[in-house]
Every structure is written in structure tokens, then in C-alpha cells.
Amino acid sequence: MVPREASEPAQCLCPLLANPNAKDVLGRKHKRKSRQHQWFMAWKALLQEQGLLSTPAEPAPSPPPVPMPGEAPPGTETASSQRQHPRAESGGAPCNRKPTPRASTTPLPSKCVAIDCEMVGTGPRGRVSELARCSVVSYHGDVLYDKYVRPEMPIVDYRTRWSGITPQHMRKAIPFRVAQKEILKLLKGKVVVGHALHNDFQALKYVHPRSQTRDTTAVPNFLSQPGLHTRTRVSLKDLALQLLHKRIQVGRHGHSSVEDAMTAMELYQLVEVQWERQEASSPCTVPEDREPDSGTDMEQYMEDQYWPADLAQGTSGGTGQALDRKA
User: Fold this and answer.
1) Helix residue spans in the chain (DSSP H)
2) Band of the pLDDT at 222, cuts 50, 70, 90?
3) What is the four-CA torsion angle of 227, 233, 237, 238, rounded to 10 degrees?
4) Cα–Cα dist 193/264, whole Å
5) Which end of the chain is less crowded, N or C, counting CB atoms within 10 A of the terminal residue's CB?
6) Using CA atoms, how far apart are residues 154 and 132, in angstroms rounded to an integer?
7) Please, what sign has the CA dihedral across residues 244, 138, 269, 296?
8) Which residues is 131 bridged to in the sheet?
9) How many CA atoms lie within 13 A of 109 on its CB side?
10) Least reliable range by pLDDT among 37-41, 69-73, 169-173, 248-252
11) Is 107 buried (19+), middle (13-18) or exposed (0-12) by CB count in 10 A?
12) CB within 8 A of 15, min separation 6: which ones?
């Protein structure tokens, strides 16, 4: 239905449009008004530039319309549709972010070293093991440190057959405290690889974080070879022969700490991926930096099944002779 007010103007305009001269009259009026409007806008702009007329303030935003009873509030449908159909990010790219690849769990080669120490006997009957030589090699087998060390106590038994240390080596040996400072500087912040590392750390009088210690006595646990004896403690010599097909500690001139450190690093590299994956996934249940029981370690070291049976006799004899000479 058309409102009554709208019908009256339409009836008034009909006679004007019927007159043929009415269109010309309306056109002249429109041109006159348009020229006046242009002149007015130009004059207004000039006054605003001169600062005589302030710019009108923008109209305040109108309040949102009040929804009628039964209608949903404005914007509700849009928000719900956005949740159901998320928009693409700016630039038109679809929102399909790929997860960043996980960093490798294996330590960097520059953060991994292998160590091996040779000890001599001091104290009563030469049963106290003290550092006499220490070797540190890099991940790639380069020798980073190899020096003879003078123990803090007098040497009673050189254990030359196993340590390779002789009195001549002590002539160029450096004091223990100096060597300890140099060695710990190399081990700080590194993953340390070695065989029966508790003996080496005890000789250095140092405790390395367990999370950064890789003792190669655990290498058989990562392998499933039927010919490999998974005893509680497998010698480095046996592991090298069975896994690396490499013969070490051969001859009667004693062990080489450089050779033993290199062999330990090679064994670690055999199972590096499995070992580091296990370290990354397993929770740390052992307290860090707990100092080992020196008495237990000393008994294990002196009662190692790989020491020859005649060691005790040679040690006691050498000890008695040394004590007699001192007396």
C-alpha cells in the first residue's frame, strides 16, 4: 500500500511534465544551482585553508540497533560462521602451518670428546690409584690432550705391564693440579665418552654430569648380536675385537691411553643414534652430579676380572721392595 503523503507530490508534478517548456525551465534551475554549489564549496575550502573556518567534526557513530524479540544479536551469525569456516591469513595464504622439524638429538661433534686415563699405585701396598697419564681425543679421533702426570703421593707400583708408565715418563710429567685444570677445561660442557669412566673421573677427582656421560660399557645394551657376551662389565679389548674387528692392548708394553680413547669413541659412534634417542626420551631418574663411592670403585678397580692373577703377587712384591728402599 502506498502512503498518502507520497502520492500528492506525484500528482503535482504531472502537470509540469505535461508542459513542453517545463523541461527547459527545470534544466536552467539545475545548472544555476550547480554553479552556486561549486562556488560555495570553493569559497568554503578557501576559508578553511586560511583558518577562518574550522573543519566540521565527524558525526558520532550511531548506536548499534537493538535487536527485536526473537532475533539474534548482530554479528552472532558472522562470528559463528568464522569459527566454522576460518578465514585465510593476510596475503591469501591458507592457514596450514606445518610443524617445525624437531632438532636432532645427537650432540654436535665439537661437543663430544673421549677420555682415557692410566693410573699408577700409591699409598699402602700401592692399592691407591692415582693419575699418571691422560689422553683426550675429539669426535673425529684427533688428539686434543696427551700428557704424563706426576701423582701427589709417591709412586709405589708403576703397573707398567698394564699402564705403560715407567720412571722415565715421570721426568717430563707435570703436577697433578696443573693437569687437572687443563683437562677439566676440555671436559666442561662436553659429552664425555670413555670405558669405565668412573675410574677415570675418580683419578681426576672430578664428577661429570651423568646426562653428559657416555660409558661404553653400556654399548652391548644397544646391540642384539648373538655372539656378543652381555656381561655386567665387558672389557674394552673384547668390545673392540667383536664390534670393530680391531685388536688393542696387544703386547707387554702396557696400554695406550690414546688408543683406548679412540676405540671408545668408535664404539660410541656405532650406537650414537640409538643412545641419544634413548637419552632424550627417558626421564632423568638418577640425581645429577652425585659423587660416587670411592671405596666401592677402588674395590671394583683392584678386583677387575681382566687383571691377571699374578698382579697381586707382583704388586705386593713391588710394594715391599719400595717400602724397604724408603726405609
Assistant:
1) 4-18, 22-49, 76-84, 160-163, 176-187, 197-204, 236-243, 257-270, 272-281, 294-302, 311-326
2) confident
3) -10
4) 7
5) N
6) 11
7) positive
8) 119
9) 8
10) 69-73
11) middle
12) none
Give 43-112 as a DSSP string: HHHHHHHTTSSPPPPPPPPPPPPPPPTTSPPTTHHHHHHHHHSPPPPTTS--S-PPPPPPPPSSPPGGGE
239 and 219 Cβ atoms separated by less than 8 Å: yes
User: Which of 198, 193, 211 lies closest to 137 in space, CA to CA?
Assistant: 193
Burial call 142-180: b when 16+ CB within 10 Å, e when fewer: eeebeebbbbeeebbbbbbbbbbbeeebbeebeebeebb
Mean of pLDDT values over 226-245: 78
Cβ–Cβ < 8 Å for 220, 228 = yes
* Contact between 114 and 264 (Cβ < 8 Å): yes
Grid cell 561549486 — which residue? 38
Per-residue pLDDT of 99-155, as tens digits, reads: 444 456 678 888 999 999 999 999 999 999 999 999 999 999 999 999 999 999 999
For the beta carbon of residue 217, count every other beta carbon within 10 angstroms: 20
Phi-psi sector, 263: left (phi>0), alpha (psi -120 to 50), beta: alpha
Cell of 140: 673425529
| Residue the block writes with cell 685444570 | 181
- Cα(193)–Cα(177) distance, integer angstroms: 22
Q: Which of 215, 218, 210, 231 is nearest to 287 (CA)?
A: 210
Grid cell digits, residue 79: 562470528
At 233, the amino acid letter reads R
Instruction: Name, in order, each residue with C-beta under 8 angstroms of 246's C-beta and a sequence gap of 6 or more.
Output: 240, 263, 266
- Choose the weakest-confidence range: 21-25, 174-178, 222-226, 267-271: 21-25
